[in-house]
Each structure stands twice: as C-alpha cells, then as structure tokens.
Amino acid sequence: MKRLFFELTESLKFAIKSLKSNILRTLLSLLGVSIGIFSIIAIYSAIDALNDIVMSSMNKFGQNTLYITKFSFMGQSGVPRWKRKNFPFPTIDEYKFLQKNLSRDRVKAVTFRIFMPVTKITVPGGETVSGAELIADGAEFPNIQELDFEAGRFFNKAEEERAAPVIVLGADLKQALFGDRLALGKTVRIYGKKVKVIGVLKKEGEGIGPGNDGRAFISSNFARTIVMPHKSFTAIIVAPKASADVKKITDRITILLRQKRKLKPGEINNFFVNNINTLKDQVAKMTKVLRLGGGFLALFSLLIGAFGIANIMFVSVKERTSQIGIQKALGAKNSFILWQFLFESMFLSMIGGVLGILLVWAGTAIVSQISDSIHISLTFKNIVLGLFISSIIGIIAGLWPAWQAARLNPVEAIRTGI
Questions:
Q1: Where does residue 292 fall: left (phi above 0), alpha (psi -120 to 50 degrees), or beta otherwise?
Q2: Is 105 inside a domain boundary?
Q3: Domain containing 106: what range?
C-alpha cells in the first residue's frame, strides 16, 4: 500500500513538472476541454433554469388540481379527433351540480372558468388598454391559486351569485390604466359595461406564460351577461385537499358528469378530467430529453478537446522517450510510467473543466444582472458533473499514450532519445 502511494505521489510530481515546463502547450491542449465543459454545463444550467420557471408557474395551481373540459392534456388520448371536436364544453349547470355533489371533506374548491376573448379596458375619461386578457372565474379561485394583493380583495360568493360588476386587476393593467394613482374603488369599462375595481394584485414578474400581471378577473356569472358561455372556452376546476385520494375524486367526477350528461353504459366520456400533475410529468420528461439532446451536442466539443489532449500526450511521450528509458533503467515500473502520463492527461482535462465551469459561472452572473426574470444558477450538481466528465475525458484521452509510454523498452528508449 505504501509503495502504491509512493508511486502515485512521484507520478503526480513528474506530471506537474512536465505541465509547468510546457505552459503554452498546456494552455492550448486544455482549451478544447474548457469549451466542451462550458457548452455542456451552460446547456444543463439553462435547461434547469427553464424547468424551474415552468414548474414554479405550474405549482401556483397547486398539486393535483383537476381541469374538466373537452380537451385532454395528453393530446389525442385515444379518442378520434372528429369525436373530440364535437365534445361539449362544461356548462354552468354542470359546475353547480359538481359543486353540490362533491364532498367538501375531500375537495377544497370548485370553480367555473370562462376564457374570455381579449378585450379593451377603459378608464372613463382616462387611459385605455387594448388586448387585455380577461378571465372569468368563481369566487373560490383564490383557494386554488394563491393570489397576493397589493390592495383590496377577490370577489366573494355573494358577488359571484348576483353577477356583481366588479373586477380585480393585475399589476401591469393597473399601472397602464391608473399609473401611480389609486385604483381601488374606481370604475373601468369593459364591453361597454361599467365595473368597479375591488382588488389589485401584487407584481409577479416575468415568467413562462402570461402570469397574472396582465390579467383582469371578473366573476363567471357576470361574464355570462357579456358573452355566451357555450361559445367560449370553459373549464370546471376542482382542487382536492392535500390528504384526499385524487383517483377517487377523479372517478367521482366522472360518474357525476356521466350522470348529468345522461351518457349510456358503453358510451365514451365526452369530457376529460385532466390532472395538472400530468403536465408536470410531461415537463419533467421534456427536460430529460433536452438534457440528453444538449449533452449529445456538447459531446462533440468534448471530443475535440479529448483529441487535442491525446495528441499532446503522444507528442509528450515522443519528446520524453529518453527520460522514460532512464527512469525504467533506474528501476521505475511500468505502472509508475503509466500513472505519470495518466495524471498529466487528467490534470490537463481537469484544469480545462475548472476553466469551463468558471466561464459558466461568469455567464450566469452576467445574465442575472441583465435580466430580473431569468435566474440561471450554477448548481453543485452541475459542478460535480463537469469535473467528473472532464476527469473521464482526461483518462480516456491519456490512456493509450500512457500505455505506449509504459511499454517502451528502456534500452531502445534511451537510444532513440540520443
């Protein structure tokens, strides 16, 4: 054991000495590895940041939130397109039926959403915002998605039932319509109707998807006085409690809706009960594919770096043939020579890997300074991955040159070097 440690230590010293004596060649050989490690870790860091943004946006809708509508989150789902096209959208009566018959011991919120056409919001005698995103929802929506208010509140059940003309504004809409002036209690006009501002949401910042900053919320019943729900995209949203069995709730919803729509035994469901976690699973799968694809592309840069190191190591073996012969003549074993060149190759690759990681760190710092909405961080997992890959590249690139050096005949090596 002591002998092995001695051989490794001495091999390491020879490797470091060789690298120091050829600084320019060392820098050129590790450049390819630096670029390769930078590419793969930068790609992985960007994909991780994108995944975090998407998941953060989706987590706002809670765990296992169920969306009942005519579309499937899973694409075709085995139902022919012509059949899915003819499926009806959920109605307000079906929403009330589910709200009445779903056990509140297992369900914390049920709401009816109408995705309204983009519209114009006007402050009488003031500013106008065209193309505003208007969402019509139920009073229980804050129990599904947590909302932070700058001022005011969401509309309540009584206001929903009597179709009260009230509205909640996102931060960007409020700023565009009122600037720094107070919006709470003021009147705006949508579809020619006056509505009262009862709430203003806090600024969320940019992310994947529109977010709530550019949205306005009205009650679904009030929306029915503006547009015809059967001509709009509608969905019933059900939020199970954390302790509830989601499959049982899904089965219960299916039974109730089949009953309400009078579907006969054997008839397929003309609706889909979509779980938000299904989308999260799809995002996770997509992230894996992106990481695999990104890693494959970056592999070409790493291969160039590996060939560069291998080429330098072959040159190094040729230059030091006489030295190798003298070392072997003085009793150095093949393993000593082998480790000497392997350490040199690994050092080159590891230094290149560290430089590549430092470049990624500098890049993430710059991106974070430039953009408030995109936060790319260099994780410990990616740092370890970068160092691991660079060490493997070093071993692979240096193995054959090191093996050749270790097998040199000492007499021929000394003669060749003279």
A1: alpha
A2: yes
A3: 88-270
